[in-house]
């Protein structure tokens, strides 16, 4: 039995790619989480700032998930520090479960610290990793995944780095084997469909072309699309996949069926952002709010915060990764929605956006990318409708005069 903070909403906090490590003076900084303290002062610490944010905003979460890379380059000290810190933050959020999926930096695949087993760093962690129950952990290590079932959600914690330390080239990408997919299918067929179904993993199961460059396709989760096809075929409920790895946030529906899962690429919580990404990504923390029985079906809200040495603040409308508030759930085509709006506007020249939402409430749950497509559809010659914004929030629509 899972007791939620809000009986109608499942809340999930997400912090990905912490990359904690023991920094050496004179070397380039790779993460803002230094187990010996930050380079400037304790006040410039993303974890301390997150604790302050939780207190100030009175944030609560039912689950606290990390999509991997707790440490940097298999740093034993960093992984221990990050795992302990996640549980401390989880306690502050009053989360009933704190868990993580193994990232490529969490496996000692180059055998720097342990001669035989690249997973020993993780299997020695206290509290037990990745789940509190040892039976679940044995399943995670032996079968490459563990499934947690509650009244409100099903959670699959997937080890997409399971083969790191095996064949030499496996360290360059993630993988889910055919056998693991078959076993997940068996488990899903035996378990009950929950209102919310989640896969937590490290590597991306699909490419996002606007983020990943052509030469980055090598590090995708091999067989990832087969996994998405399995959970998106409509037989196993509504799914969200949460992954990390790329340090660039993005949210989109996967390709395939109209019940295809939502895929959330979480930005890095505290790694120093690569120069190529610094105009497109910031360090981010997330809180998902998922109504369990909404009139518009499977919908939700993702809240995002950016970090700077001054602390955590609501994410910027652009250039951060995810904006401060982003919603999902409306899958209607942009042209169809534009036609509905055009009909509501009729011969009127101007209307408040709030009045449009009253008529078409599902509009409030468009992904940012889908909302851009809607604005473009409204602007074309067929409708001649402009959308006016205030600080990135739609306020009014108006029909352009034609000559």
List keywords for this structure.
403 residues; 2 domains; alpha/beta; Purple Acid Phosphatase, chain A, domain 2; seven-stranded mixed sheet; six-stranded mixed sheet; single chain
Describe this structure as you would to a colleague.
The protein has 403 residues and is α/β, with parallel strands linked by helices. It has 2 domains: 9-328, Purple Acid Phosphatase, chain A, domain 2 (4-Layer Sandwich), CATH 3.60.21.10; 334-399. Helix content is 24%, strand content 22%. It has helices at 46-57, 76-93, 120-123, 134-143, 178-190, 224-231, 334-345, 353-359, 368-379; strands at 9-14, 63-66, 97-100, 145-149, 153-158, 174-175, 196-200, 221-222, 239-243, 250-253, 262-265, 284-291, 300-308, 311-314, 325-328, 350-352, 385-390, 393-399. Strands 1, 2, 3, 12, 13, 14 and 15 form a 7-stranded mixed beta sheet that branches. A hairpin with an 8-residue loop joins strand 10 (250-253) and strand 11. Helix 7 (334-345) packs across helix 9. The chain is globular. The termini are far apart. The relative contact order is 0.11.
């Amino acid at each position: 039995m899972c007791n939620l903070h809000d009986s109608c909403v499942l809340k999930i906090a997400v912090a990905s790619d912490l990359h904690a490590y023991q920094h050496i003076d004179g070397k380039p900084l790779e993460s803002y989480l230094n187990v010996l303290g930050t380079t400037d002062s304790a006040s410039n610490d993303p974890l301390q700032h997150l604790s302050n944010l939780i207190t100030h905003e009175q944030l609560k979460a039912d689950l606290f998930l990390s999509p991997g890379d707790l440490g940097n380059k298999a740093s034993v000290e960093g992984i221990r520090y990050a795992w302990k810190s996640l549980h401390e933050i989880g306690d502050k959020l009053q989360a009933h479960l704190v868990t993580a999926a193994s990232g490529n930096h969490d496996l000692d695949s180059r055998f720097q610290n342990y001669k035989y087993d690249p997973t020993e760093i993780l299997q020695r962690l206290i509290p037990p990793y990745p789940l509190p129950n040892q039976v679940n952990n044995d399943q995670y290590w032996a079968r490459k995944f563990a499934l947690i079932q509650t009244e409100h959600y099903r959670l699959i914690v997937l080890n997409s780095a399971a083969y790191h330390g095996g064949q030499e080239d496996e360290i360059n990408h993630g993988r889910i084997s055919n056998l693991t997919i078959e076993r997940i299918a068996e488990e899903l067929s035996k378990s009950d469909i929950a209102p919310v179904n989640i896969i937590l993993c490290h590597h991306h199961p699909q490419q996002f072309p606007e983020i990943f460059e052509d030469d980055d396709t090598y590090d995708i989760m091999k067989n990832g699309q087969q996994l998405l096809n399995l959970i998106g075929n409509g037989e196993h409920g509504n799914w969200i996949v949460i992954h990390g790895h790329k340090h660039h946030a993005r949210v989109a529906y996967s390709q395939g069926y109209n019940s295809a899962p939502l895929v959330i690429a979480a930005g890095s919580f505290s790694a120093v952002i690569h120069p190529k990404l610094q105009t497109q990504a910031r360090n981010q923390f997330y809180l998902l709010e998922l109504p369990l029985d909404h009139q518009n079906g499977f919908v939700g809200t993702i809240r995002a915060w950016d970090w700077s040495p001054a602390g955590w603040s609501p994410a910027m409308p652009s250039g951060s990764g995810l904006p401060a508030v982003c919603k999902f759930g409306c899958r209607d085509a942009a042209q169809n929605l534009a036609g509905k709006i055009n009909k509501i506007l009729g011969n009127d020249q101007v209307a408040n956006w709030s009045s449009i939402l009253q008529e078409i409430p599902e509009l409030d749950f468009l992904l940012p990318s889908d909302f851009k497509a809607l604005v473009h559809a409204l602007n074309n010659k067929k409708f001649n409708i402009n959308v006016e914004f205030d600080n990135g929030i739609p306020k009014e629509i108006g029909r352009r005069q034609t000559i």
